[in-house]
Protein 1
Amino acid sequence: MPTTGTATAADGIEVEYERHGDGQPVVLLHGGMAPRQYWQPVLPHLEGYAAVVPQRRGFGTCLDDPEETGPDEVLEREVAYTRALVEDLDGESDEPPVLLGHSFGALTAIEAARGLTADGESDAIEAVVAYEPAILPEAFAEHADLADRMAARLDDGDREGAMKLYVEQVVLAGEVEDLDGWLAEWPVWPDCVALVEEVVRMNRAVERYELPDRLDVDAPALVLAGTEGPDFLRESARNVHGALPSSRLVEFDGVSHSGPSEAPERTVAEVRAFRDAH
């Protein structure tokens, strides 16, 4: 059975998390619309690690004032809470944690590591693993309007339609013919519709993010991607790999944007191999 804990961020807000197993902590940061249950397929493969799964604010009951959180604050907020969690884990293991993020969680992991490096605390984490970070290539970002299109559907009262647009464009890369049929078999649908406002805010944050020429991250990084996800995210993974001073890029053939949950054994195997190499 998992244990529960809380980490207190600088703003005084407590971030809840679950801890599964014992060993070196691996902090699992989920992406844009999947709750922390996204990591359930991964957990059985993390034997020998302590899997730490936070409840991202806005993706449960813990966001007190969602309307007060603007898009410019979303990423900063996520980074702050991740760093608070890393600090809370300090001393619980002989080894610092690994940050493993998917999509927006991968961007959060990279930015958290970047901030730790800037503050001279790069030894607070052992490594960063980022599966298809939610970073838009420059040419794509110039025309990105997913947040506006989702917001327009929300303004019309079509919450389900707004979330369908996100699933179609990001999760499925616009390559499914029967969206409703696919959704009927998707375990998180329609519960995830309740998260739509946070997903719009997150998408605005992604659309405004600019990848620097160099990501100053002292910790070694593993960047993962799948060949069956959106082309722009695969391109972004390569761009992130090129901007990191010390990274390895691995592409999973035949795997989509939902790589960690779709191919959990392969994902964890790459994490173990990467950790052993460093």
Protein 2
Amino acid sequence: MALEISMQDKGVRVVTMNYPPVNALPVQGWFDVATAMREAGADPETRVVVLRAEGRGFNAGVDIKEMQRIEGFSGLLGANRGCYEAFKAIYECPVPVISVVNGFCLGGGVGLVGNSDAIIASDDAYFGVPEVDRGALGAATHLARLVPPHMLRAMYFSARTVTAQRLHEFGSVDQVVPRDRLDETAFEFAAQIAAKDPRVIRAAKEALNGIDPIDVNRSYRFEQGFTFELNLAGVADEHRDEFVATGRTLDT
């Protein structure tokens, strides 16, 4: 399990999640994503960040099995803080972040892409927030950046998913391509951004964040409060134990 970081020509920094079997990130993995984004932004040579994944899918959210192995609330607290830091670091990264989605993007994965600046997805990609099935809440803030308001509610309450093609119709996914062309397409787009004057691009990123109608950091933190309530009530543990008992690997 690892987060892999490399720098391509002309300032394209690549951050790759590689946590088999389904890229359900452990607590440290979320903090590592946050660190990678902050380091990218602090490096004047970085002009754009490409966030991608190896394996079956982009991201399956929090590693629930790890959380249930940890005694007390430290696993929950770590995952919640780690997700918050990762999402915040992506949003506040001084350069554009392109999320490159293959296969599934679930739960915390939607938090990652929802706070990124552009999304390119494979034609088999799908997105969803199955939190209510796990007795938790979260990432509605980020799903709201991808779908219209009533669709958000329908998806959230039902825990159903939406295809990349549908999101492309809404304009929230920039491009949908065959999986074997995904990286090529993403790097071509990244190169277009990297070719711009980095002083202007960094100013543009800050300006666009400044005119956002919703404070995504505060909004997500508000959601997390309800997750803590459900945990203190014992509801979330029931659902997570059920998930672990089924032996599933995907949080859906």
